[in-house]
Write a structure and sequence with these properties.
The complex is a heterodimer of chains A (543) and B (267). By secondary structure, chain A is α+β, with helices and mostly antiparallel strands. Chain A has helices at 22-29, 66-73, 105-115, 120-134, 149-162, 179-194, 206-212, 230-245, 249-264, 272-334, 421-424, 430-433, 436-441, 447-453, 501-508, and strands at 5-18, 38-51, 55-59, 81-86, 90-94, 167-171, 198-202, 215-220, 223-229, 346-355, 359-363, 371-376, 380-387, 390-395, 398-403, 407-408, 459-462, 468-472, 477-481, 487-492, 511-512, 518-523, 526-531, 536-541. Chain B is built from 10 helices and no strands. Classes of the chains: A alpha+beta (543), B mainly alpha (267).
Chain lengths: 543, 267
């Protein structure tokens, strides 16, 4: 029966780049970098097949590439060139197997198994086996940093061997254990062999290799020196070691140097044919590589471009608009071009003002389209600012806009007038003056009482601000209800505006409307508003 | 793009691995402490209270922001930030922390930052839940804008993945990166509208602050949860955010893939 090939390695090489400085490593990543580096051939043209159930010993002196090979077989590092065909899961056991030294042994088992892709319940089932194999005793609850090197190696070996790999690679891991542990490992390896698994065994110890291996591979400075039956390879290797040991230190150094120089050299093919083929392939490779690099550079630049342009628009999009506005303004000041669009003028005011027209309409929008509320002459408002000829004002809690002509923001004069109520009586109609004390006494009485107290009610209605009114047409009187059901003010119709008294009222007034037709003044305890156009006087009790 | 595809494929192929290691990571992190997992919430809660007291009450005098009570406004910005901060700091150190463990085995190193992001997600989700309780107590119902929350979540995860992939690789060969990162994150924290609202600044300064991609995320979370505007309403900023994110993702993937077989050499 033909044995099944488990691992096929064909022409595998591994090169390391020798950088002179640290930043060359970073520079080399950049697609346009031209850092020239020297190559070091850790492995050169290695080819072999390994069958299922075989145990392969790997020998070689220090720095010959044994660990590189085992790392490649464990897929820890990629190859530079060549083909690698590994059928199955591999597990690498090295001296420093990679334990987290701050975690306890138990936690390391869990973490390491998780990293190998095991499920939590699988790990639970495996943990007792691992603990038994590692023989750590009470130390299992201790952080790994307190472990001896033997303990670490045992734990690492135990974990790796229990993750149930198809291919096991043991890289000098057994050299630290004592005799009993070593025996235990051998038993385990035998168990693996019997279940048809493939094992690679890297060691310096010829006797260890001899006792385990079916076949032996001798790696010498990156090249495969020999691969075959254990006995013959090991005896050759033994001879070489014996020869090498007998060299003087200087000779050893020279030998090593020569070998290393050889490893730094690039390939020298023997046949011209091979060289041509290789060159052609190399050319194709570099072309592909260049294409990739160009496309990568393009992608990076494209994204960078997007980033910069969008950032620029974020910044300068606004600047652009401002520039256009400025241009417009300039053309206006020159005056040659008449633009319909007027530049908006904004102004902070932050002052108290009062309504200077009979009724001011407040709007809730700047274009004065949505009416909010109407307020009468003398109402105090707070003017926040001005946009064109519209005031932005605050009336109580309400923010509103109104025509700037409606509001006077010049300071109110506080001077109280010297005019007495008696003096004003002569402008009033006679039916009022006859019993003015009674009519005035109705103010501050309840609105319904007033309705009962006076006779001759001709109409009931509402004034423009929504207050209820009682009109006594024959008496030339209108009473207006206030907020709380009391009678707030009294309007006297048909006053005589031709009387010279009106002139002195005008002089004594605290506020005057823009047109001069409305006067506001204080007469005794009353606030009086004289409307010369409507020939009325409104009296309200001062607060 | 093939590099990004390669890295992303590794994430999806190892989804189970990421999931299990993230759970293990979360469990083991607080194992040694008496209050255990509770610390995941105690720390952030204390921080929220201090910021609310010092800035909300002390500096702002209890006033609201953008029509919201400051406390609500703060919490909605701060909870994503806690997640961002932890993920970036831990994610960027993730490869250095584990490189000895993975150097001798066939392990997809690119999932290490993702494991950190996923393990921090558990905490993030719990904090998110607490945030909803705070919102409900403040009578903040869900609005139609909540529909864009998944968009901002995806944006946040892609941004975090890109930055941690980039950061964790850079941190390996430029060791100074690990020293620069914590103060840098603190600066970015104060330059993001997490604690305070930037609308008092001039347009130019606001735009400069917007170049920080976390600005996009924090503002996005607020407008999803508290209502505001749709993500497509500021097209230019959205384009900027995604081109920034993919630029970092591409550079991160490039250096990660190029260098991963040499990670051990840098230790």
């Amino acid at each position: 029966m033909e044995p099944k090939v488990k691992i096929r390695v064909k022409n595998v090489s591994k090169q390391y780049k020798l950088y002179k400085r640290n930043f060359e490593k970073i520079l080399d990543v950049l697609p346009f970098s031209k850092v020239r580096t020297q190559n070091f051939h850790a492995l050169r043209n290695i080819s072999f097949d390994v069958n299922e159930g075989e145990t392969i010993g790997i020998v070689g002196i220090n720095g010959s590439g044994k660990s590189t090979l085992s790392n490649i077989l464990a897929k820890v590092i990629p190859v530079t060139s060549g083909e690698l065909d590994i059928r199955g899961e591999t597990s690498l056991i090295a001296i420093s197997v990679g334990l987290d030294k701050n975690l306890t042994g138990l936690d390391n088992i869990t973490q390491k198994c998780l990293m190998h892709g095991l499920k939590t319940d699988e790990i639970k089932a495996l943990t007792p086996d691992i603990l038994e194999f590692a023989e750590l005793g009470d130390f299992i609850e201790q952080p790994v940093k307190n472990y001896s090197s033997g303990m670490k190696a045992r734990l690492g070996f135990a974990i790796s061997i229990h993750t149930n790999p198809d291919i096991l690679i043991i890289d000098e891991a057994l050299s630290v254990g004592d005799q009993t542990f070593y025996q235990k490992c051998l038993d385990k390896i035998d168990e693996f062999k019997k279940s048809g698994k493939t094992i690679f065994f890297v060691s310096h110890s010829i006797s260890q290799i001899r006792s385990i291996s079916d076949r032996v591979m001798w790696i010498h400075y990156g090249e495969m020196q020999d691969f075959g039956e254990a006995e013959s390879v090991l005896s050759q290797y033994g001879d070489f070691i014996k020869w090498y040991k007998n060299l003087s230190p200087d000779e050893k150094k020279e030998y090593k140097n020569n070998m290393n120089i050889k490893q730094r050299k690039d390939f020298q093919e023997n046949s011209a044919n091979g060289r041509l083929g290789r060159q052609a392939r190399k050319k194709k490779n570099t072309n592909d590589k260049n294409d990739k690099k160009t496309s990568l550079t393009f992608q990076i630049l494209l994204l960078l471009c997007f980033m910069v342009v969008s950032a620029w628009i974020m910044f300068d999009g606004k600047a652009l608009k401002v520039n256009i506005d400025e241009l417009k303004m300039n053309s206006q000041t020159v005056g040659k071009v008449e633009t319909k669009e007027k530049k908006t003028v904004q102004e902070q005011i932050e002052k108290e003002g009062y309504v200077a027209v009979q009724t001011a309409t407040l709007f809730s929008d700047r274009n004065l389209t949505t009416e909010a509320v109407k307020i009468p002459f003398t109402t105090t408002v707070y003017v926040e600012g001005k946009v064109d000829d519209v005031y932005k004002i605050k009336y109580g809690q309400l923010e509103a806009y109104t025509n700037a002509n409606n509001i006077d923001i010049s300071q109110k004069s506080d001077a109280s007038s010297n005019i007495e109520l008696k003096d004003v009586l002569k402008v009033m109609p006679t039916n009022f003056t006859n019993s003015y004390q009674f009519f005035l006494a109705q103010l501050s009485k309840s609105f319904t009482d007033v309705k009962g107290n006076l006779r001759g009610l001709t109409a009931e209605g509402n004034d423009p601000y929504g207050n209820r009114t009682l009109v006594f047409g024959n008496l030339n009187l209108t009473y207006i209800e206030g907020q709380d059901g009391e009678t707030k003010s009294l309007i006297i119709d048909n006053i005589n505006v031709a009387d010279p008294m009106i002139g002195s009222l005008s002089n004594e007034s605290i506020l005057k409307s823009a047109s001069g037709e409305l006067l506001f003044l204080k007469i005794n305890q009353y606030d009086a508003i004289v409307n010369m156009k409507d020939k009325t006087m409104q009296l309200t009790l001062s607060e | 793009m093939s590099l990004i595809y390669q890295v992303l494929r590794e994430q999806f192929a190892n989804a189970h691995l990421i999931w299990r290691l993230a759970i293990y990571d979360m469990k083991s992190r607080y194992q040694m402490h008496y209050l255990g997992v509770l610390w995941q919430f105690l720390g952030p809660m204390l921080q929220i209270l201090v910021y609310w007291f010092v800035i909300g009450i002390g500096i702002r005098g209890g006033g609201g922001v953008e029509g919201q009570p400051y406390f609500v406004w703060l919490v909605v910005g701060l909870i994503p930030w806690f997640f961002i901060n932890r993920s970036i700091l831990q994610g960027s150190g993730s490869i250095i922390a584990k490189v000895n463990l993975v150097s001798k085995m066939n392990f997809p190193v690119s999932v290490l930052p993702t494991i950190n992001i996923v393990s921090n997600t558990f905490n993030f989700m719990a904090m998110f839940f607490i945030m909803w309780i705070i919102l409900i107590f403040n009578n903040k119902g869900a609005s139609i804008y909540l529909l864009q929350l998944p968009y901002y979540m995806i944006a946040l995860y892609i941004l975090l993945f890109s930055l941690t992939l980039f950061g964790s690789t850079i941190a390996l060969f430029v060791r100074d990166f690990q020293m620069v990162l914590p103060p840098l994150m603190r600066i970015i924290f104060y330059l993001s509208p997490v604690l305070w609202d930037t609308s008092n600044f001039s347009e130019a300064i606001q735009t400069a602050l917007k170049l920080n991609p976390f600005y996009y995320i924090v503002v996005g979370f607020r407008s999803s949860i508290l209502g505001g505007e749709w993500f497509y309403q500021d097209v230019v900023y959205t384009v900027y955010f995604w081109s920034f994110t993919f630029f970092i993702l591409l550079i991160g993937s490039l250096i990660h893939v190029k260098f991963r077989d040499k990670f051990v050499d840098y230790i």
